[in-house]
Amino acid sequence: CTSLVAQDKTGDLFHARNLDFGLFLGWDVKNQTWALTERLRPLIINVEYQQGGKTVAKGVHFAGYIGVITGMKPGVLSLSMNERFQLEGGFIGIIEWIIGQRDGQWMGFVLRDAVVKATDFNSTLQYLTSVDLLAPGYIILGGNSSGEGAIITRSVGTKADNVKMLDPAHGTWYLVETNYDNWKNPPFFDDRRAPATKCMNTMSQANVGLKGIFNVLSTKPVRNLLTTYTALMHVRNGTLDTYLQYCPQPCFPW
Amino acid sequence: KAQEFPPFTEDCRTDAYPPPVNTKVGTYVLNLDQAPEDRWTGLVKPMADKMKIMIQDIKDLVGIFVNETKAINLVDELLAPLTDTFPEPYQGELRGIANATGIPLGEVVLYNIFYEVFTV
Asked: Which of A44, A135, A189 lies at the smallest CB-CB distance from B115?
């Protein structure tokens, strides 16, 4: 996955993500595609959460998956979650849950609660930094006011390994997160961060907007054979647009 | 770096937006005033066949690590009762999806906790 939060020169915030999934889950030799990725694409749907006839949140779902991994509360915040691989990953959390140790919470449910119940950026940031989780992950948060953007690097339990904030006053007008700790170099065989960073810098802050960000996320290898969709979120306008993504060959497998 | 070898890396795109209209994803309204058991029905019922195929793929993956029969038993016997331990409204929503699609509850649970399974 690749997630981006960017602020334009007027202080307006945009949040977008590529959802990549299906690595090693079946390779279709004839079509040169990942089998599970192809199965997931037709299940993608935008969901508008309504209560009392009013929209309280929006999310991108795979039909039948009730948690949120991409979502927004119009006028308040947006979030996306990228997978973090750890040996002490979610599998141990599942076993603990099954044997009755149920302090932790499930990622998709936590993020759905966070979006639907959000009142402001800071309290949600604090909640997601400390909530007890069964699995690690990178939670990317965007707000509605200048400087409201963060990458929360989460471990299992209540530990946040790192929180990196947007800091436009000091030149950090965008954040990029893929699937690796942002304070370390990504592995040589999977570096989508460098191309995304290069394209963000080429685009420049003057051109931040849905068009520019979509172009960045559509550039190979940021877009790759695992990419199922690109979601574009603009909290101030309350828009969440999702587009299916395909990556015609030649295209990197991940 | 592997991805920097041509032809896998492009110059930064400037022409991808707007994307083709037929790639835009539709919207489903989830009414939180409805009972949890009913609120997803309108979405999942017409998509039941696609969901079944996808969940079978996930089960096949689990079957690589334990044998296939064991995997099916594991999913049906271990994961279905797990539903009772989830907070509401998620319990009710999972049951509603299983009822609407005819997919066994354990398999619906597996699909919904697949992130936790997959991070290993």
From this structure: A135
Kindly state whether B101 is in contact with chain A, defined as any CB-CB distance less than 8 angstroms: yes
Instruction: List the single range of A58-62, A63-67, A95-99, A104-108 with lowest mean pLDDT.
Output: A95-99
Cα–Cα distance for residue pair A63/A42, rounded to 1 Å: 9
Q: Which residue of B has its CA nearest to A193?
A: B3
Cα distances (angstroms) measured from residue B89 to each of A66, A222, B83, B84, B102: 10, 36, 11, 11, 20
Task: Kindly determine whether residue A252 and residue B111, on different chains, have CB atoms separated by under 8 Å.
Answer: no
Q: Please report the beta strands in A155-226, taking only residues with DSSP state E, as ranges in sequence order.
A: 160-165, 174-177
Best of A131, A239, A243 to substitute, by most chain B Cβ atoms within 10 angstroms, is A243
**pLDDT tens-digit readout, A9-68:** 999 999 999 999 987 677 888 888 998 899 999 999 999 999 999 999 999 999 999 999
Q: Extract the tokens encoding A171.
A: 């030149």
In angstroms, rounded to a whole number, what is the distance separating the alpha carbons of residues A95 and B118? 14
How would you write the pLDDT of chain B (120 residues) with one tens digit per residue?
666 666 677 889 999 999 999 999 999 999 999 999 999 999 999 999 999 999 888 777 767 766 666 767 777 788 899 999 999 999 999 999 999 999 999 999 999 998 887 775
Residues of chain B with Cβ-Cβ distance to A28 below 8 Å are: none
Which residues are CB-contacts of A223 (< 8 A; sequence separation ≥ 6)? Answer: A18, A217, A230, A245, A247, A251
- In this predicted complex, what is the ipTM? 0.95
Catalytic residue status for A1: yes
Q: B57 Cβ partners below 8 Å, 6+ apart?
A: A25, A26, A35, A36, A39
Which residue among the candidates A1, A199, A247, A251 is catalytic per the annotation?
A: A1
Which residues does residue A104 pair with via DSSP β-bridges, in sequence order? none
